[in-house]
# Entry
Amino acid sequence: MRLGAGLLLAGAAACGGAQGVGPASHLDAIQVTATRLAAPIQEVPRSVSIVTGDELRERGVSDLRGALAEFAGITVGPGGDDGAAGASLGLLGRRESDDFLLVVDGVPAGGVFAPPFATLNLHDVDRIEVVRGTTPVYFGTVAFAGTVSVFHRAAGDRAPGPRLAIGSRGSLDVAAGFARTAGGLRQSLGLDATRERLADPRAGFDRVHGLYRAARSLAGGRARLDLELTQLHDRPASPTPYDGAAALLGPDFNQNPANGHVDTRLARLSAAYDRALGAATWSSLLSFTHTRSDSVRGFLDPEYATETGSNAAGFEQSRRIDDWFVDSHLSRRLGTQLELSAGFNLLQGRLQTDSRLFDYFVPLDGSPPAASGTSASTDSTHLSDSRRFFGAYLQSRWKVSRNLSLLGGLRWNRTGESRASRADVEGADQRSARSERLTGSIGVNAWLWRDPSGDLDDLSVYAHLGNAFQPPQVDFGPDAQTNPILAPESLRSAEIGTKADALDGRLDADLAAFFVRFFNRPLNTSVDNQPTQVAGGEERFRGWQLELHYELAPQLKLAADFAGNNASYGDFPTQLDGASTPVQLAGRHLEFVPERVLGLGLVWAPAQGWHGSLNLKTLGRRWLDPSNQASAGGFTTVDVSAGYRWKDWELSLVGENLGDRRDPVLASELGSGQVYRMAGRRLALSVSAKSF
# Structure
């Protein structure tokens, strides 16, 4: 707390104490993800970060890595097992995608299974909100360790003009938006098509996306309708086998069969309605999402270098997911001091996968392997999994006094899962599980200083406690799910911090410390000489972070962030790499969690004339294996943009990872002992109109 206050006071003194009305700081931004009771970040006892669509466009950002580049302590690994279009979020020591919730325009994307970051579209984004840690009241079990909420422009809002970008290796991006208001009906349509090519000539993706939004007044309230369609053809890159800290193959070696692909079709329909009911506001949302994915993937065996016949295992898979989400709640303000929100929501999903496993040969000279159809099947599996997550919740915010407020909530959860699987080798199996639990959180926010006329405008401190649980992850891999459904994972978290803004909103900072313990993590073991899993592992995270923004001049903005992480295993006896006896990992560091993350961003964004941006991101040392026998040193990526703006048009050149760093950033869950690297250098030249 003293460090945060000192930084702000020092900055204020250095700048001479400008007076008068200035711009709103980042802490004045209104968020809804953390509380469902819309409030400025300054008043929320949580660490929350927001980036607007205008800020993304100023930096020429087109993916999640760039969008979250200025958020403290957050790392995004491009690609991964989900394909070249995927992304892996790193936050509070966690890197498993099902630990995070992705919300798109109010709908939990991925439902009860895993967030589909590969289909996330950032064209025409209005803002992105990130909450570090659990949000167990409104979203329940699916918001386990962090939430990313993406909001597109509202129906009828002024649409951006057409955009054309031409990038490295033949990459192409085309987008256009349309907006119309007539007879009280507000409508928007956004269309875009992307062709992305990577340094690996066999990797990249083609995506076509459309989003239609409509809104109008209805029966004394406001009705909204969204329809989103996405078609993605992904040719995945491959992870690199590592021996210790040494890569055994080149960064762009592709081990997939010649017809390797991940093809996904997604359709999402949602409807919402809001209206006043006396002194309260009633809000309801209903959505349905259908996702179909067909893939061919393959990964080298651990002993690939010495095998003379087949040296890789592959699988063909057809996956279908249908999920429903319904929420209805009432919010009411009682006087000037108390706000209440109460309601229920239901997430229900059904997953079906059909997989064929096969062995094949990967030439190590870099020539493509044969197509999957040339290899005989070694096993075929089918999985059907149904999940149902229901919760009733109550949340309140009480302004005890002008300088003290409390935010708390409880949720009663009821979860259920039914699973049936069969395989040629393992046979048939059926499992089911049920769970009922309370989750909740409580936070306090206290102002130590308020003086809008002074150099230091606001200074507050906050503390937050939370507890949550989540059912175990459903493995989308090709193996039949013959393991038992494990007991739910759980966490307990504590967060303390301070927030302040100064110089009439030109300077703001958020300093926070986190203490999180994860329980019932899966452990690998053996029963009757057969590999299986049990619940019981413990992991711990301690860390702190600082996020700072400073407006050096009316069009010149500086952002800086720093995070220190200590992510380690608690009691964690598990078998590693097929070993017959467990290894106790207590005290060792979690793999691929950087010890330090440092970021620095600079944006020059006048309305007309030359513009540009610079972003530096440094990741510290990371352990590559759970035994902590191999580590990777720190590295820095450099992203830049430069261009010229006319009254109605803009020309921009964007460069990502200019140093062409190919450092390891993410472990593969399907390729044993293999890691994904940073994507190579990328350049793109774009021309766009300000409006259509």
Observations:
- Residues 166 and 172 are 5 Å apart (CA to CA).
